[in-house]
Amino acid sequence: MTEQVFSPNPPPTNGWIIQAENLTKVYKMGQVEVHALNGLSLTINRGEVVSIMGPSGSGKSTLMNIIGCLDRPTSGEYTLDGEAVSRLNDDQLATIRNRKVGFVFQSFNLLSRASALANVELPLRYSHLSKGRGEKARQALDSVGLSDRINHRPNELSGGQQQRVAIARALVNDPAIILADEPTGNLDTKSGLEIMDLLLNLNREHGTTLIIVTHAADIAAQTQRIIHIRDGVVEEAL
What we know:
six-stranded mixed β-sheet
């Protein structure tokens, strides 16, 4: 068997940054097979702002895990920024996840005992960057309006500020995409609006590709395109 060669600098793609073709994902629960994805195909363009919606059990969480390089499909092809992700081994998958995907979670997922600066530095540590690590993290925090909170721990920050730290952490490695899972779900209305404004501004100013998984119709309405998932396939893309 020929081993898949992992290219650290794959050639750029024209137009699209994500292409998924006929993805299936089957989980085994004892003797039962659960088909989470059933031949799903979609394309997301570079610089696009997209929301993914669907009822519980629709397959959107499974799709999010595959897009974010946290999991591989059972069959089908997934290409991220020119890299055939579905063919990578676990180590290669971790490398491309750290380099190409910035995550923003509903629950922030910050280290409680670490400062904002240390939290933002984490992806740089995983990529073994030592020179300029602190400066890059400071620049990322400044870009989200938290230059005066770099030494604060999460419990010293509001929910909105914690989510800003999470966004700075997602940005610090200059990822190909930002994948936000219910990014305003744990925030009050005012903070939620501020976080959406921040994410959309990152897209406008830097062309960052933004994918938002959400149940909230008002959040999805702010994106350029809504992809509806049901029964493991794309139901419609508006």
